[in-house]
Every structure is written in structure tokens, then in C-alpha cells.
Amino acid sequence: MDCVLRIFTLILQAGFLVAENKISHVQGVAGSEIFLSPHIPHGFTIRDVFWRHSNEIVASHIQGTTQTIYQSRFFERARLLNNFTLEISGLEIGDSGIFTSLLVDIRGHMKQNEFHLTVYEPVAQPAVQVFASSSEEDGKNCTVVLICTTTNGSNATYTWRADSMEQDRVISNEVTFDGGHILKVILAPTDQDTLYTCTVNNPVSQLNTSVMPWNSCKFHSGADAEVFSCKMIPYLAATLILLFIAMTFWVLLCTRTKGKSRQKEKQNVEGVLLQHTPDRPNQDAAEDGPQNV
């Protein structure tokens, strides 16, 4: 490592930099690989090559010997190909930055190439949640809130598209929040076949998910409410009939039970009275006996 740095410093001191400095902007996908190929002018015979990431030397080719620096974060991920192209595998978000290739020819002339690399995480399949409620004004329209989310993806942007079977129809009453992440729309009965698509994209990937939000609020319309009420009438009638039968049976049972209880109480009272009533004819005969004598 120290040897390479010393050689690199000596070359910078001894040589001179060609005025042309080519800058390229490159995008990479996390987990994949990327190839950075320097521009080599015609007639430029390369003797040495140095690749840097910011101020860190990643790989070098000095007088026919190729070397990757083991202290580098790219150790075992960087490879210098025969045409001096730098290959970086297993890209990480932290690999973003400026890569510089310094080419030195046999006369000590140098040429520099800059690659501004940005690594992105690809977006995942988005999920769309639908929250619907009936309109309080006329009961026909439906206010819908659509929330689009994705679990992965750096620098992701959200866009919405409404597609209908009707051609050239303008979809109105749409409001987006949170950078397009949330969409609020008022649907009319004419929007029953409207398909809303959420597209999530970044510079390296794009995915979308579609939903038909009217399906979540169709039971809130007046027509559906009438159909629902008509379907419920037989069930309500059957319930009332069963309730009437149960109440009638309960009343009859209570009446019969009370009748038996009253009859039993009457019999008990009569028995008590018979036990406590004196034998009046015998007493009268006993009282009249002495008078006759």
C-alpha cells in the first residue's frame, strides 16, 4: 500500500496532467455489479493505471503488475480487467461517490477520468390500501383515500394514473399528499370501472400496483342500500314471527302455572278451615240436656 502511494505521488510530481478531464455520471443497483471503463485516447500507450474512490486507492496497474488494495472497502469486490476497466461487485449504498482513474503513458503524460457513481436500492412491489366512505351530501359519491407504500427503494417517487373503459374522460377531484404517497379522490357512480395505478420508481427500477377503489365503497350508494334492505325484509319478518311465538308460549306457560298455584292455595285454605271449625250440633245437644231434667 505505501509503495503504491509513493509511486502515485512520484508520478504526480514528475508527470503532467492532460488538460482533458472526462466526467461521467453512473448509476448502480445495490447488490449487483458495475463496470467503469476509462476513456483512452488514440495513441495513448498506457504504462500505469491508478483507480481511486474519493482519496482511497482501490486498484492499480504498475509496470505490468495489477494489484487491488486490501485495506480498501472494495477488497475482494474490486477487479481490474485487462482493458483497465474497474469492476465493482456486490454494490452497497455506501459505495456511492467519485471514482477516478489516472492513466500514465510511457512518456509520463497523464489522463484522468471521473465517474460519479450513485448506488440505489431497487424498489419493492408497492401495496395499495383503500379507505372509502360515503359522501354526506348526496349519498351517491364516494370519497376514497388510497395509500401506496413500498418496503424497499431509495429515492423512490410515487405517481398515480387513472384508467377507465371510457375514452378521453378526465378524472377530476384528485388531491395528493406526502409527495404522491397518498391520493384522495371523490368517485361518482360513473367511476365504477376506473382503475387506479400507483407506480413507484427510482433511477434503477420501477414497479406498479393497480386497484379498483369503487369496489370498496359500492355498498354505500343508495341503490345498494335499497337492495340490502329488500334482502333483509324476509329475515326480519321471520325473526318477528319467532319472537311472537316465543312470547305467546311464555304467556300461556305463566298463566297455567299461576292457575295451578291458586287452586293449590285454595285447597290448603279449605283444609285449614275444616280442621279449626267446631262440631256445632253436638255442642247444642250437650247444652240442652240439663234443662230437660
Automatic annotation (TrEMBL):
Subcellular localization(s) per the UniProt record: Membrane
Residue ranges constituting the Ig-like domain according to the UniProt record: 126-210
Protein name: SLAM family member 8
The entry's keywords: Glycoprotein, Membrane, Signal, Transmembrane, Transmembrane helix
GO CC terms of this entry: membrane
Coiled coil: none
Primary location recorded for the protein, binned into one broad class: membrane
Residues making up the signal peptide according to the UniProt record: 1-19
Keyword Transmembrane among UniProt keywords: yes
GO aspect biological process, one term: immune response
Transmembrane segments: 232-254
Region: Disordered, residue numbers: 264-293
